Protein backbone atom coordinates (compact mmCIF):
# COMPACT_ATOMS: atom_id res chain seq x y z
CA UNK A 1 0.00 0.00 0.00
CA UNK A 2 1.43 3.38 -1.00
CA UNK A 3 1.55 6.38 1.30
CA UNK A 4 -1.41 7.90 -0.52
CA UNK A 5 -3.75 4.93 -1.04
CA UNK A 6 -5.98 6.11 1.81
CA UNK A 7 -6.45 9.45 0.04
CA UNK A 8 -7.34 7.83 -3.29
CA UNK A 9 -9.83 5.60 -1.48
CA UNK A 10 -11.53 8.72 -0.10
CA UNK A 11 -11.55 10.34 -3.52
CA UNK A 12 -13.14 7.18 -4.92
CA UNK A 13 -15.94 7.40 -2.35
CA UNK A 14 -16.47 11.06 -3.21
CA UNK A 15 -16.65 10.33 -6.94
CA UNK A 16 -19.39 7.78 -6.36
CA UNK A 17 -21.40 10.45 -4.56
CA UNK A 18 -20.67 12.92 -7.36
CA UNK A 19 -22.11 10.48 -9.91
CA UNK A 20 -25.26 10.02 -7.85
CA UNK A 21 -25.75 13.80 -7.68
CA UNK A 22 -24.85 14.47 -11.31
CA UNK A 23 -21.88 16.68 -10.49
CA UNK A 24 -19.00 17.38 -12.88
CA UNK A 25 -16.76 18.31 -9.98
CA UNK A 26 -16.43 19.25 -6.33
CA UNK A 27 -14.54 22.33 -5.20
CA UNK A 28 -12.97 22.68 -1.75
CA UNK A 29 -11.25 25.82 -0.52
CA UNK A 30 -8.89 26.61 2.33
CA UNK A 31 -8.75 30.36 2.77
CA UNK A 32 -6.37 31.13 5.63
CA UNK A 33 -7.41 27.92 7.43
CA UNK A 34 -11.14 28.40 6.85
CA UNK A 35 -12.28 25.13 5.31
CA UNK A 36 -8.98 23.32 5.88
CA UNK A 37 -10.61 20.18 7.31
CA UNK A 38 -12.11 18.87 4.06
CA UNK A 39 -9.07 19.95 2.03
CA UNK A 40 -6.82 18.01 4.40
CA UNK A 41 -9.10 14.98 4.57
CA UNK A 42 -9.20 14.48 0.80
CA UNK A 43 -5.82 15.82 -0.33
CA UNK A 44 -3.51 15.49 2.70
CA UNK A 45 -2.43 19.14 2.33
CA UNK A 46 -2.15 21.22 5.50
CA UNK A 47 -1.22 24.69 4.32
CA UNK A 48 -3.33 27.79 4.88
CA UNK A 49 -4.30 28.59 1.29
CA UNK A 50 -5.50 26.12 -1.30
CA UNK A 51 -8.22 25.19 -3.74
CA UNK A 52 -8.95 21.55 -4.56
CA UNK A 53 -10.98 20.49 -7.57
CA UNK A 54 -11.95 16.86 -7.99
CA UNK A 55 -13.54 15.68 -11.23
CA UNK A 56 -14.27 12.22 -12.63
CA UNK A 57 -10.78 11.88 -14.07
CA UNK A 58 -8.59 14.38 -12.27
CA UNK A 59 -7.71 15.68 -8.80
CA UNK A 60 -5.79 18.92 -8.53
CA UNK A 61 -4.68 21.31 -5.84
CA UNK A 62 -3.81 24.94 -6.43
CA UNK A 63 -1.74 26.91 -3.95
CA UNK A 64 0.75 29.78 -3.93
CA UNK A 65 4.55 29.79 -3.99
CA UNK A 66 4.82 29.51 -0.19
CA UNK A 67 3.53 25.94 -0.25
CA UNK A 68 4.95 24.38 -3.44
CA UNK A 69 7.40 22.04 -1.68
CA UNK A 70 4.94 21.24 1.11
CA UNK A 71 2.18 20.36 -1.35
CA UNK A 72 4.51 18.09 -3.32
CA UNK A 73 5.24 16.12 -0.14
CA UNK A 74 1.73 15.99 1.31
CA UNK A 75 -0.59 15.32 -1.61
CA UNK A 76 -0.69 12.94 -4.58
CA UNK A 77 -2.89 15.43 -6.46
CA UNK A 78 -1.65 17.40 -9.42
CA UNK A 79 -0.28 20.65 -7.96
CA UNK A 80 -0.92 23.92 -9.76
CA UNK A 81 1.04 26.95 -8.57
CA UNK A 82 -0.46 30.40 -8.68
CA UNK A 83 1.64 33.04 -10.43
CA UNK A 84 2.42 36.34 -8.74
CA UNK A 85 -0.36 37.97 -10.75
CA UNK A 86 -2.99 35.35 -9.92
CA UNK A 87 -5.30 35.03 -6.95
CA UNK A 88 -6.74 31.77 -5.71
CA UNK A 89 -9.99 32.71 -7.45
CA UNK A 90 -8.19 33.18 -10.78
CA UNK A 91 -6.86 29.64 -10.44
CA UNK A 92 -10.25 28.25 -9.51
CA UNK A 93 -11.80 29.82 -12.59
CA UNK A 94 -9.00 28.43 -14.74
CA UNK A 95 -9.39 24.90 -13.31
CA UNK A 96 -13.14 24.94 -13.85
CA UNK A 97 -12.72 26.14 -17.44
CA UNK A 98 -9.99 23.62 -18.32
CA UNK A 99 -12.18 20.73 -17.19
CA UNK A 100 -15.41 22.10 -18.65
CA UNK A 101 -17.10 21.91 -15.26
CA UNK A 102 -20.70 23.05 -15.54
CA UNK A 103 -22.24 21.66 -12.36
CA UNK A 104 -19.96 21.86 -9.31
CA UNK A 105 -20.52 20.93 -5.70
CA UNK A 106 -19.28 22.79 -2.64
CA UNK A 107 -19.68 22.42 1.12
CA UNK A 108 -21.66 25.46 2.22
CA UNK A 109 -20.82 25.07 5.89
CA UNK A 110 -17.12 25.61 5.21
CA UNK A 111 -17.45 28.44 2.70
CA UNK A 112 -17.60 32.07 3.74
CA UNK A 113 -20.17 34.34 2.17
CA UNK A 114 -17.40 36.47 0.67
CA UNK A 115 -15.86 33.43 -1.04
CA UNK A 116 -19.26 32.31 -2.29
CA UNK A 117 -19.90 35.75 -3.81
CA UNK A 118 -16.64 35.51 -5.75
CA UNK A 119 -17.43 32.01 -6.98
CA UNK A 120 -20.95 33.02 -8.00
CA UNK A 121 -19.51 35.22 -10.74
CA UNK A 122 -18.18 32.16 -12.59
CA UNK A 123 -20.18 30.46 -15.37
CA UNK A 124 -20.92 27.41 -13.25
CA UNK A 125 -24.03 25.96 -11.65
CA UNK A 126 -23.12 25.69 -7.98
CA UNK A 127 -24.73 23.05 -5.77
CA UNK A 128 -24.37 22.95 -2.00
CA UNK A 129 -23.64 19.28 -1.31
CA UNK A 130 -25.15 19.71 2.17
CA UNK A 131 -22.82 17.66 4.33
CA UNK A 132 -21.77 15.11 1.69
CA UNK A 133 -18.09 15.19 2.64
CA UNK A 134 -18.67 15.23 6.43
CA UNK A 135 -20.85 12.14 5.88
CA UNK A 136 -17.95 10.44 4.07
CA UNK A 137 -15.62 11.52 6.87
CA UNK A 138 -17.75 9.72 9.45
CA UNK A 139 -16.40 6.30 8.49
CA UNK A 140 -12.84 6.25 9.81
CA UNK A 141 -10.26 4.08 8.06
CA UNK A 142 -7.50 2.15 9.82
CA UNK A 143 -5.01 5.02 9.51
CA UNK A 144 -7.47 7.48 11.04
CA UNK A 145 -8.26 5.14 13.92
CA UNK A 146 -4.60 4.55 14.74
CA UNK A 147 -3.98 8.31 14.60
CA UNK A 148 -6.84 9.01 17.01
CA UNK A 149 -5.55 6.28 19.34
CA UNK A 150 -2.16 8.00 19.33
CA UNK A 151 -3.82 11.36 20.07
CA UNK A 152 -5.61 9.71 23.01
CA UNK A 153 -2.36 8.22 24.31
CA UNK A 154 -0.54 11.55 24.11
CA UNK A 155 -3.36 13.35 25.92
CA UNK A 156 -3.54 10.65 28.60
CA UNK A 157 0.20 10.72 29.29
CA UNK A 158 0.23 14.52 29.31
CA UNK A 159 -2.58 14.60 31.88
CA UNK A 160 -0.69 12.22 34.16
CA UNK A 161 2.39 14.45 33.95
CA UNK A 162 0.36 17.61 34.55
CA UNK A 163 -1.09 16.15 37.74
CA UNK A 164 2.43 15.94 39.15
CA UNK A 165 2.90 19.67 38.49
CA UNK A 166 -0.38 21.02 39.88
CA UNK A 167 -0.46 22.86 43.21
CA UNK A 168 -2.68 25.06 45.31
CA UNK A 169 -2.55 28.61 43.98
CA UNK A 170 -1.89 27.63 40.36
CA UNK A 171 -4.52 29.22 38.12
CA UNK A 172 -6.82 27.23 35.88
CA UNK A 173 -5.16 28.84 32.87
CA UNK A 174 -1.68 27.94 34.13
CA UNK A 175 -2.76 24.33 34.53
CA UNK A 176 -4.25 24.37 31.03
CA UNK A 177 -1.01 25.66 29.53
CA UNK A 178 1.01 23.18 31.59
CA UNK A 179 -1.11 20.35 30.17
CA UNK A 180 -0.75 21.62 26.62
CA UNK A 181 3.01 21.92 27.10
CA UNK A 182 3.20 18.26 28.05
CA UNK A 183 1.15 17.35 24.98
CA UNK A 184 3.70 19.07 22.76
CA UNK A 185 6.64 17.51 24.60
CA UNK A 186 5.11 14.06 24.00
CA UNK A 187 4.84 14.57 20.25
CA UNK A 188 1.43 16.16 19.87
CA UNK A 189 0.77 19.24 17.77
CA UNK A 190 -0.79 20.95 20.76
CA UNK A 191 -4.32 21.20 22.06
CA UNK A 192 -7.40 21.69 19.91
CA UNK A 193 -6.82 24.26 17.14
CA UNK A 194 -10.19 25.99 17.50
CA UNK A 195 -11.20 25.38 21.12
CA UNK A 196 -9.65 26.11 24.51
CA UNK A 197 -9.38 23.44 27.19
CA UNK A 198 -12.03 23.43 29.90
CA UNK A 199 -10.45 23.71 33.34
CA UNK A 200 -13.19 24.57 35.84
CA UNK A 201 -12.66 24.36 39.60
CA UNK A 202 -14.99 24.65 42.57
CA UNK A 203 -18.20 26.48 41.82
CA UNK A 204 -17.00 27.20 38.26
CA UNK A 205 -17.24 23.49 37.51
CA UNK A 206 -21.01 23.98 37.23
CA UNK A 207 -20.23 25.57 33.84
CA UNK A 208 -20.19 22.73 31.27
CA UNK A 209 -17.98 24.88 29.01
CA UNK A 210 -16.05 26.74 31.69
CA UNK A 211 -12.84 27.41 29.78
CA UNK A 212 -9.73 27.96 31.88
CA UNK A 213 -9.68 31.28 33.74
CA UNK A 214 -7.39 33.15 36.12
CA UNK A 215 -9.18 31.60 39.11
CA UNK A 216 -6.69 29.96 41.47
CA UNK A 217 -7.01 26.29 42.38
CA UNK A 218 -7.87 25.89 46.06
CA UNK A 219 -7.53 23.16 48.65
CA UNK A 220 -10.57 20.90 48.86
CA UNK A 221 -11.99 22.00 45.49
CA UNK A 222 -12.58 19.56 42.67
CA UNK A 223 -11.40 20.39 39.15
CA UNK A 224 -12.99 19.25 35.90
CA UNK A 225 -10.57 19.09 32.96
CA UNK A 226 -11.87 18.63 29.40
CA UNK A 227 -8.85 18.33 27.11
CA UNK A 228 -7.31 16.51 24.18
CA UNK A 229 -4.38 16.35 21.84
CA UNK A 230 -4.07 17.18 18.17
CA UNK A 231 -1.91 14.65 16.35
CA UNK A 232 -1.55 14.04 12.63
CA UNK A 233 -4.49 16.33 11.98
CA UNK A 234 -6.84 14.37 14.28
CA UNK A 235 -8.21 15.06 17.74
CA UNK A 236 -8.79 13.26 21.02
CA UNK A 237 -11.31 14.46 23.59
CA UNK A 238 -11.20 13.40 27.25
CA UNK A 239 -12.56 14.67 30.56
CA UNK A 240 -11.24 13.80 34.01
CA UNK A 241 -11.67 15.17 37.53
CA UNK A 242 -9.34 15.65 40.50
CA UNK A 243 -9.14 17.53 43.78
CA UNK A 244 -6.33 19.12 45.75
CA UNK A 245 -6.64 17.25 49.03
CA UNK A 246 -9.86 15.77 50.38
CA UNK A 247 -13.03 17.02 48.70
CA UNK A 248 -14.90 19.62 50.76
CA UNK A 249 -18.32 18.35 49.60
CA UNK A 250 -18.51 14.52 49.65
CA UNK A 251 -21.70 14.53 47.56
CA UNK A 252 -19.57 15.22 44.51
CA UNK A 253 -17.66 11.99 45.04
CA UNK A 254 -21.03 10.22 44.97
CA UNK A 255 -21.91 12.10 41.80
CA UNK A 256 -18.65 10.95 40.22
CA UNK A 257 -19.50 7.34 41.05
CA UNK A 258 -22.88 7.91 39.41
CA UNK A 259 -21.21 9.28 36.29
CA UNK A 260 -18.98 6.22 36.10
CA UNK A 261 -22.09 4.04 36.05
CA UNK A 262 -23.85 6.23 33.48
CA UNK A 263 -20.73 6.33 31.32
CA UNK A 264 -20.34 2.56 31.43
CA UNK A 265 -24.01 2.01 30.58
CA UNK A 266 -23.86 4.44 27.66
CA UNK A 267 -20.65 2.94 26.30
CA UNK A 268 -22.09 -0.58 26.49
CA UNK A 269 -25.08 0.58 24.44
CA UNK A 270 -22.86 1.65 21.51
CA UNK A 271 -23.37 -0.72 18.57
CA UNK A 272 -24.14 -0.59 14.85
CA UNK A 273 -27.81 0.07 14.17
CA UNK A 274 -28.40 2.05 17.36
CA UNK A 275 -29.46 5.66 17.02
CA UNK A 276 -27.80 8.50 18.84
CA UNK A 277 -30.91 8.92 20.98
CA UNK A 278 -30.88 5.19 21.87
CA UNK A 279 -27.42 5.45 23.40
CA UNK A 280 -28.15 8.78 25.06
CA UNK A 281 -31.29 7.37 26.68
CA UNK A 282 -29.43 4.49 28.33
CA UNK A 283 -26.89 6.74 30.06
CA UNK A 284 -29.40 9.48 30.84
CA UNK A 285 -31.73 7.01 32.52
CA UNK A 286 -29.04 6.15 35.08
CA UNK A 287 -28.71 9.83 35.99
CA UNK A 288 -32.48 10.40 35.96
CA UNK A 289 -33.12 7.50 38.35
CA UNK A 290 -30.58 8.89 40.79
CA UNK A 291 -32.47 12.19 40.90
CA UNK A 292 -29.95 14.31 38.99
CA UNK A 293 -31.68 14.36 35.61
CA UNK A 294 -32.39 18.09 35.76
CA UNK A 295 -28.67 18.74 36.05
CA UNK A 296 -27.62 16.92 32.85
CA UNK A 297 -28.56 19.34 30.09
CA UNK A 298 -26.34 18.46 27.13
CA UNK A 299 -26.17 15.46 24.82
CA UNK A 300 -24.22 12.37 25.77
CA UNK A 301 -21.59 12.76 23.06
CA UNK A 302 -20.54 13.65 19.55
CA UNK A 303 -18.46 12.45 16.64
CA UNK A 304 -14.72 13.06 16.62
CA UNK A 305 -12.00 13.14 13.99
CA UNK A 306 -10.39 15.96 12.03
CA UNK A 307 -12.71 18.25 14.00
CA UNK A 308 -13.43 18.10 17.69
CA UNK A 309 -17.18 18.04 16.97
CA UNK A 310 -18.40 15.93 14.05
CA UNK A 311 -21.29 13.64 13.20
CA UNK A 312 -22.88 11.55 14.58
CA UNK A 313 -24.38 13.08 17.71
CA UNK A 314 -25.49 11.17 20.78
CA UNK A 315 -28.39 13.20 22.12
CA UNK A 316 -32.13 12.95 22.83
CA UNK A 317 -32.78 14.51 19.40
CA UNK A 318 -30.37 12.45 17.31
CA UNK A 319 -31.91 9.97 14.88
CA UNK A 320 -28.49 9.31 13.27
CA UNK A 321 -27.81 5.58 13.06
CA UNK A 322 -24.42 4.39 14.29
CA UNK A 323 -22.34 2.36 11.89
CA UNK A 324 -18.88 0.73 11.94
CA UNK A 325 -16.15 3.32 11.61
CA UNK A 326 -17.90 6.03 13.60
CA UNK A 327 -15.84 7.51 16.43
CA UNK A 328 -17.88 9.11 19.21
CA UNK A 329 -17.39 10.52 22.68
CA UNK A 330 -19.37 9.46 25.74
CA UNK A 331 -19.47 12.28 28.29
CA UNK A 332 -22.26 12.29 30.88
CA UNK A 333 -22.18 15.18 33.32
CA UNK A 334 -23.99 16.65 36.31
CA UNK A 335 -23.85 20.41 36.92
CA UNK A 336 -25.52 21.98 39.97
CA UNK A 337 -25.77 25.78 39.73
CA UNK A 338 -23.79 27.72 42.36
CA UNK A 339 -22.30 24.47 43.69
CA UNK A 340 -20.32 22.71 40.99
CA UNK A 341 -20.29 19.91 38.47
CA UNK A 342 -18.41 16.94 37.05
CA UNK A 343 -18.13 15.20 33.68
CA UNK A 344 -16.49 11.94 32.57
CA UNK A 345 -15.49 11.47 28.93
CA UNK A 346 -13.77 8.91 26.72
CA UNK A 347 -13.61 8.18 22.99
CA UNK A 348 -15.11 5.08 21.34
CA UNK A 349 -14.99 3.39 17.95
CA UNK A 350 -18.13 1.71 16.64
CA UNK A 351 -17.10 -1.75 15.44
CA UNK A 352 -18.89 -4.46 13.48
CA UNK A 353 -20.00 -6.18 16.67
CA UNK A 354 -20.16 -3.35 19.20
CA UNK A 355 -17.55 -0.83 20.27
CA UNK A 356 -13.95 -0.31 21.32
CA UNK A 357 -12.65 2.28 23.76
CA UNK A 358 -9.82 4.21 22.12
CA UNK A 359 -8.74 6.14 25.21
CA UNK A 360 -8.28 3.03 27.32
CA UNK A 361 -5.05 3.88 29.12
CA UNK A 362 -6.30 6.69 31.38
CA UNK A 363 -8.12 5.56 34.55
CA UNK A 364 -11.57 7.05 35.02
CA UNK A 365 -11.36 7.31 38.81
CA UNK A 366 -11.58 10.60 40.65
CA UNK A 367 -8.04 11.60 41.71
CA UNK A 368 -7.55 13.02 45.21
CA UNK A 369 -4.07 14.54 45.08
CA UNK A 370 -1.85 14.79 48.12
CA UNK A 371 -0.84 18.29 49.14
UniProtKB/TrEMBL annotation:
One example GO MF annotation: metalloexopeptidase activity
Pfam families: Creatinase_N, Peptidase_M24
Classification via InterPro entries: Creatin/AminoP/Spt16_N (IPR029149), Creatinase/aminopeptidase-like (IPR036005), Creatinase_N (IPR000587), Pept_M24 (IPR000994), Pept_M24_MAP (IPR001714), Peptidase_M24B (IPR050659), Peptidase_M24B_aminopep-P_CS (IPR001131)
Keywords on record: Hydrolase, Metal-binding
Limits of the Peptidase M24 domain: 148-352
Domain (Creatinase N-terminal): residue spans on this chain: 10-137
PANTHER family: AMINOPEPTIDASE, AMINOPEPTIDASE YPDF
Name the record gives this protein: Peptidase M24
Organism, as annotated: Dethiosulfovibrio peptidovorans DSM 11002
Amino acid sequence: MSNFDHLWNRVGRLRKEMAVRGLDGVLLTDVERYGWENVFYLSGFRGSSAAVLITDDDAMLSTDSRYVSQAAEQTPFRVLVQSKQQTIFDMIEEMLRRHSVRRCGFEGETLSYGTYRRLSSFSVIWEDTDGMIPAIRRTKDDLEISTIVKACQIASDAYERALTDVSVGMTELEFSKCLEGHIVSLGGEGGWPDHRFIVASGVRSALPHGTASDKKLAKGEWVTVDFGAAYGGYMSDLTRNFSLGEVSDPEFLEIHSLLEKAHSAGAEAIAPGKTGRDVDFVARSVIDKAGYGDFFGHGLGHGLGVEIHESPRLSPRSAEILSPGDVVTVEPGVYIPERGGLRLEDDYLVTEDGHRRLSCDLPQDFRILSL
